[in-house]
Design brief:
The longest helix is centred in the first third of the chain and has 14 residues, at 68-81. The chain is 32% helix and 21% strand. The protein has helices at residues 19-22, 62-65, 68-81, 96-107, 120-128, 143-152, 167-176, 199-204, 219-228, 246-252, and strands spanning 7-9, 12-13, 33-34, 54-56, 87-92, 110-117, 133-136, 157-162, 177-185, 208-211, 237-241, 260-263. It is globular. The protein has 3 domains: 1-56, no CATH class; 71-211, Rossmann fold; 237-266, no CATH class. The protein is of the alpha/beta class. It is built from 10 helices and 12 strands. Strands 7-6-5-8-9-10 form a 6-stranded parallel β-sheet, with helices on both faces. A two-stranded antiparallel ribbon has the order 1-4. A two-stranded antiparallel sheet has the order 2-3. Helix 3 (68-81) crosses helix 9 (219-228). The mean pLDDT is 94. 38% of the residues are buried. Bound molecules: zinc ion. Zinc ion (ZN) is lined by residues 14-18, 20-21, 29-31.
Length: 266
């Protein structure tokens, strides 16, 4: 690759030698490394990566290209979900992932996407990013939202995606899935969080619960999707800071009005 090429990076590293890698499932590599998560990443002036992990972005604007990695994770989630055309889908969460997921779900077969989240400004944005319906969640009481969601889908949703990491939301997701439906656990809950789910409900209603963790081999497809212009990224980046603004970027993670903060120069 020529010096000066503008690229995005696949930040995953697989050992290639452990059992899962040799079985063709590198996402479950026993030595799985994700630059920026469990190894030094790109919050630095320079980062070292293999050339095989670089993707030429061509003329794609940087403020769009920077969303390649989050989009690739959402894409993996949609792959795992395995939606049928004409599905009625509910997404809990309207962060960057929720907003990107809503649009990918439409591409993957959702006839209708409902987004439920606590922040009104993000819900308004969700309407511009593929959502057909929006429902506001009260942070500590989901009862009212559950009633509104039942009105939208009286028989339940074909698929419910939990993209908040909240245990109570996962519990609601199970209730709101239609009989024979699927729940996708996409949000990052605490390692020791425990949800109350009735095994009888899973059994009698033949529910499927799936998990989606990180991504493998989705960067190229995510970049192509952004280059094709079929995903609206407007409004997702709410602030851009330099390296010395890293603390601000971390603080923004806890500010509901912020969606994605970019560290770097756009
Ligand atoms: Zn491995």
């Amino acid at each position: 690759m020529a010096l000066g090429t503008r690229v995005v990076v696949d930040n995953t590293i697989h050992c290639g030698e452990c059992g899962p890698c040799r079985d063709g499932r590198p996402l479950f590599c026993e030595q799985f490394v994700s630059l920026g998560c469990n190894a030094p990443g790109a919050f630095a002036e320079y980062v070292v990566v293999r050339t095989s992990k670089l993707y030429d972005i061509g003329s794609l604007p940087l403020d769009v290209a920077v969303l390649t990695e989050p989009l690739s994770c959402a894409m993996h989630g949609v792959d795992v979900l395995g939606l049928s055309p004409g599905s009625n889908v509910l997404v809990f969460g309207a962060g960057p992932t929720g907003l990107l997921l809503s649009q990918l779900l439409k591409m993957a077969g959702a006839a209708s996407v409902t987004v439920a989240a606590p922040t009104q400004s993000k819900l308004d944005l969700a309407l511009l990013h593929g959502a057909n319906n929006i429902v506001k969640l009260e942070r500590n009481d989901l009862a009212e939202a559950i009633d509104s969601l039942r009105e939208i889908a009286p028989e339940g949703f074909d698929a419910v995606i939990e993209a908040t990491g909240k245990v109570t939301v996962l519990e609601a997701a199970v209730q709101l899935a239609r009989t024979g439906g699927t729940i996708l656990v996409y949000g990052l809950a605490g390692e020791n969080d425990v949800a109350e789910i009735k095994p009888y409900e899973i059994f009698s209603r033949e529910l499927t619960i799936k998990g989606s963790f990180a991504q493998a081999f989705c960067i190229g497809r995510a970049l192509f999707t952004l280059q094709s212009g079929s995903i609206n990224t407007e409004g997702i980046i709410t602030q851009t800071v330099g390296l010395n603004g890293f603390a601000t970027a971390l603080k923004n993670l806890h500010d509901p009005e912020h969606i994605k903060t970019v560290v770097g120069q756009l």
